[in-house]
Amino acid sequence: MSQTIEVQLPDIGDFKDVEVIEILVAPGDVIQPEQSLITLESDKATMEIPAPQGGRVAEVKVAIGDKINQGDLILLLEADADGDAAAEAEAPAQEAPVDEAPAPAPVAAAQSESAPAAAGEVQRLPVTVPDIGDFKDVEVVEVLVSDGDSVEKEGSLITLETDKATMEIPSPYEGTVRDLKVAVGDRVNQGDFLCEIETRAEAPAVSAPAASEPTQAPASVASAQHERRPGEKPARKRPVIARPSDAPKGRAHASPAVRRFARELGVDLLHVPGSGPKGRITKEDVQAFVKRTLAEGAPAVAASGPLQLPRPPEIDFSQFGEVEEIELGRIKKISGKHLHNAWLGIPHVTQFDEADITELEAFRKGLKAQAEKEGVKLTFMPFLMKALAAALKEYPQFNASLAPDGEHLILKKYLHIGIAVDTPNGLMVPVVRDVDKKGVFELARDLMDVSSRAREGKLSPADMQGGCISISSLGGIGGTQFTPIVNAPEVAILGVSRAEMKPKWNGVDFEPRLIMPFSLSYDHRVIDGAEGVRFTTYLGQLLSDIRRLVL
Q1: Domain 331-550 adopts which CATH fold?
Q2: CA angle 169, 177, 187 (to 5 degrees)
Q3: What gap in Å lies between CA 61 and CA 49, rounded to an integer?
Q4: For the chain, what is the total number of helices (H) and then of strands (E)?
Q5: Residues with catalytic function
């Protein structure tokens, strides 16, 4: 037999007209004792309200945006009248009272051992974790200040989070933060040392309260444990909410459950747009952000980015000797962000190989006179582009891009190849179009045109869009092998190093052969290792015997 229980909002301290920002259950849900039902938010704190007992949700009586107070009806709960559930429903206050929290460590204990500070005198006052109720080993999820920061009285120092509530711990004094001892991920308890506040005394320091008198938490921290009146039954265990100062500008608005979910995924909520009421970030917003990030490659991460990369250390290099600071060029700033995003967002694999281009180089030199008549300089690059275009036709998954949803592949029916050009302003990658439809002389002419315009800074944005794959050639400079970064949204990039004569065994003896090392970096989400090896092997065969291109 079951009975219907009215679940009301318990005592939440001094808060009035608190807004409902999330409803975590629905009619028909079977819930357990202490399971979160709704999330409330005031201008100072976010709290989740737990179920007083288990049962099945019959009807939810509140909606998102409602403002409620202690005693307001939240929902109707169908509970089994037999057994513990019935007993708890009939006499919810008969459970054992919550153990009283140990007396907090006196915040000003250090002051009591010395003479009172004179007005205006600089003094350091210790700040410890105040009374936060029944919570133990509470995790530090944000550190809002650093050593040397100025903080106002009631200004937030750190943010703590339990599985039910988020609370900010305020400074009891105005002054400068010194000797900060906590970091994100630490777990703290009442009385733990946080930092010191360097401040000027306005009056003689107040001595520590007598041992028989409990130390009171700063006025800005409201414990949910109010003093019980005579005959009042002990309150049910509930979230204890701190009343910190206003959150810093740009603070993400999300419930404790959403914050915990975001931390598990390594997502910085400051970068996530909220779709809930008043810009509130929901679990679905975090999921959509992660999905978008994986599809597009990691967003720009200049410092502590949305994927929680650590900030680089700030080092004063002048302490070691003379330095000069110059600004990066505009092209390097733009390409640097793009390359950073590509490196973070694409799981790279690089395949190394080499090609015997002895005959190809002899063929190229044999065309020198004809190239002069055509008015072009015939380098090795047009032959490489033709071979690469043929390889892309043979292995079309390399001529593709990953769809934004990360679950589909967009196969391209055109063959445009980007060529990395070293310019005085930085690396640029103009695109040569329809490589498969052009001969080597026409490709040589296109290369001369885009390279010249790149060095003169006359390329348009359209000249650098639409590539299927890119080539980065360092053969004219030197080197043996290198790992190029995939030029997203492409899925592969070819790196070419300097060719050199090497002795190769022909079955009878060694003979000198011109060997060109090359490397292929590719997106492992699209291309697996076996496909990568087949591609480089096929490309090497084409370069070793250019006659294969007519087959």
Answers
A1: Chloramphenicol Acetyltransferase (3.30.559)
A2: 40
A3: 14
A4: 10, 27
A5: 524
One fold for both 2-92 and 331-550? no
SS3 state at 318 = helix
In this structure, of 122-131, 308-317, 323-332, 523-532, the range with the lowest mean pLDDT score is: 308-317
Please work out, in degrees rounded to the nearest 5, the angle formed at the alpha carbon of residue 22 by the alpha carbons of 17 and 27.
110
**CATH match for 2-92 among 3.40.1360.10, 2.60.40.10, 3.30.70.1350, 2.40.50.100:** 2.40.50.100
- Residue 425's pLDDT is 80
* The predicted structure's pLDDT at residue 83: 42
Q: What is the pLDDT of residues 192-213, one digit of tens each?
A: 999 999 998 765 444 433 333 3
Sorted by where each begins, the domain ranges of the chain are: 2-92, 331-550
Show the DSSP H helices in 310-403 as ranges: 330-345, 358-366, 368-374, 381-394
Report which residue type is found at 443: L
For residue 124 the two structure tokens come to: 């350091």
* CA–CA separation, 56 and 35 (whole Å): 12
Q: Is the dihedral of CA 476, 482, 484, 485 positive or negative?
A: negative
Residue 222: closest CA among 246, 244, 204, 247: 244
- Give the DSSP H or E segment for 347: none
Residue type, 404: P
Across the range 121-140, mean pLDDT stands at: 84
